[in-house]
Amino acid sequence: MSEYIYPVAIIGGGSAGTMAALRTVLNNDETLFFPGTAQDKKRSRALWVAKVENVPGHLGYKKGIEQPNRESLQWLSEGEFKEKFHWKKNTGVTKVTKNADGLFELTDSKDQKWLARYIIIATGVMDVQPIIDGDIEAVFPYANAQTIDYCLRCDGHHVLGKRTAVIGHGNGAAWVAVMLYERYKTPKMSVLTHDKKSEISGDVLELCKKYGIEIIEGEILSVLGKDNGKTLEGFQLAGGTIHECDWAFTSLGMLVYNELAKSLGCELDERGFVIGDAKGMTSVDGVYVAGDLRANTKKQIYTAWDTAVDAGDAINAKLRALSRVTS
Ligand SMILES: Cc1cc2nc3c(=O)[nH]c(=O)nc-3n(C[C@H](O)[C@H](O)[C@H](O)COP(=O)(O)OP(=O)(O)OC[C@H]3O[C@@H](n4cnc5c(N)ncnc54)[C@H](O)[C@@H]3O)c2cc1C
Description:
- By secondary structure, this protein is of the alpha/beta class.
- The chain is 31% helix and 25% strand.
- The longest helix is centred in the last third of the chain and has 26 residues.
- Flavin-adenine dinucleotide (FAD) binds next to helix 1, helix 2, helix 3 and helix 10.
- The site of flavin-adenine dinucleotide (FAD) has 40 residues, from helix 1, helix 2, helix 3 and helix 10.
């Protein structure tokens, strides 16, 4: 292991990790940046996001997170702060421990070891996909074309004038249906419970009834549509029924990539998100959390940015305080 102590290491290269790197490097703090392996990236939300319509300035990008992130990282790696930016491309972190001196020992996916004084974990989450006919691939063309969406705040407006179905069996899915109906007065709204029985409770069920939102139990056997996912026509259900719709949302929960935080002993909430204080410091001194992984935040690009800036600035304040007493 190199004995050099990097002031800060950032784990994750999505919206949060990239903003964290911009902040710490522009604060003039030497930064190790691990954006993840190809496999890590494939599991990240950043890779799945196509057009971003709810963040100013993003309309021109086909890949609304990946492209602007790459531009900023490239600029950072070539500009006047480049000596402070150690961009470990296609590299993830497989292990982190805190040693007796309070420093973090990181092992990367190339089996190299590093020492850092502070770390920011921004490894994100992933939306649970419906398993149709044995795997999750049936929805991919539609997810890529965004005729099947995941994020209400990002893409809810897509359902204006559309016959819409929400895939999910719990109150969360029913609330997505209710909210979309109330906002956009969709001509038809249904909840498809797919491979589970409905767990929607009384009061939410009443609201669905009031709005004519049908709760349909029955396994989805296939997704119907054309134009490589650009046109969704509906779902074939068990028993031969075809449920026609123009748009769909999935609401099946999230997988939280909290393994590294958990291994360090960071406190998690009941859903597995990592709890941070006002600046994002976790229950483990020196470990910060940013982005979707952080508990009690909106799962959005601008929230990822804000939590990343909070963490970067808090670390800078601590590094400056340390230099005041050691210099
Ligand atoms: C389909 C879809 C559309 C969306 N559209 C919008 C939108 O229009 N507007 C909006 O504001 N939000 C949108 N979102 C939400 C947005 O994508 C997230 O809020 C945002 O990506 C969160 O950023 P993040 O950095 O926390 O996580 P992610 O973007 O998921 O990034 C996680 C990063 O961690 C890395 N990683 C994982 N494990 C490791 C490891 N062990 N070592 C190193 N790196 C690791 C990955 O490679 C990745 O770089 C959308 C989400 C989805 C799924």
